[in-house]
Amino acid sequence: MNDRERYLATMSFQHADRYPYYELGIWGQTYERWLREGLKEEELQGDWFRGEVKFAHLDKREFIKLDMGPIPGFEKTIEETDRYIIFIDRWGQKHRGLKEGTARGTRLSMDTYMDFFVKNRSDFLEMKKHFDPYEPTRYPQNWNELKKKWQNRDYPLYLTENCGFGGLYWNLRQMFGTENLSYAFFDQASLIHEILDFMVEFFIKTTEKALKEVEVDAFIFNEDFAYKSGPLISPKIYREFFLPRHREIVEFLRKHGVKVIELDSDGNTEDLIPLLIEAGINCHFPLEAAAGMDPVKIRKKYGKNLALMGGIDKRELAKDKKAIEKEVRRKILPMLKEGGYIPTVDHTVPPDVPLENFLYYLELKRKLVEGY
């Protein structure tokens, strides 16, 4: 099977020669560590999602690079010292970030978010001006070239990059901030409904050209609407605000032949899974182990209603080979019979994982499926 056939078969619980070999990436500090431990720059360079990192021998995927953010953005540096930088990002979020420990574009600590662009309807109407769906620069300059390249491809093609559109909750959070948004569902409900309706309309108008001109296999809702103990929104909030809009986008995508709709969220999303399935979402990742998201447990509960990706505990990869083997065997072997599962680490790999351990994990994943 080629990479495209294998991915589509796995996601639809049909026979595949093996599961796809995917991983989500590594921290910048992990990159630096693995260089010290013997990898060469050229072996580590490239996009993990696209399977470009040579040493890992991952399967190929491709993503349509549409610019779904505000154009123009709101970027601005406010203050910078030797220790930190205060800046406004593309979405109008004001950050304070430490410069110490920066490696490969990532910081050891999260930024402090100081302020957000949208506080009321007037702010939203101003931001809305930056979301013209027909802005020409939303599409790559070489669009016609890319269309030809993708006609006879043997790998899956996704609509937008991972985090290229974000998602409905994701984009609301970028506008309001998590705390302000949590209040806004109650204090400014009509505004949230208005923004969500606009976001769905914007998504459909922006992507329709791509979906008409290219055969697309998959799309990712990046939402990140959960934490370790559960969702950041209740099932009631999801049903009122998100379910009808997720469903509208899913139906639009299905009408254009998109077979796989993935939902990406960290944390424990279990209370929302029945509603995600109701919305038409048919794959969920990365199944964060520290939040109790166990692929074997979720499979027993939801069967073939939901394909799964991820769930391999990154904390176990930092231990020894015995711990890695126990983790990988416990989660992969029960899932092999039914399919519908792609094992990956449950997020990007942190710098406490030695290169030797990660290579052993990759080798073990291959051995298990080949010997099944």
TrEMBL record:
Uroporphyrinogen decarboxylase (URO-D) domain segment(s): 177-364
One GO MF term attached to the UniProt entry: uroporphyrinogen decarboxylase activity
GO terms of biological process kind: porphyrin-containing compound biosynthetic process
Family matches, as InterPro entries: Methanogen_methyltrans (IPR052024), UROD/MetE-like_sf (IPR038071), Uroporphyrinogen_deCOase (IPR000257)
Protein name, UniProt field: Uroporphyrinogen decarboxylase (URO-D) domain-containing protein
Organism: Aerophobetes bacterium
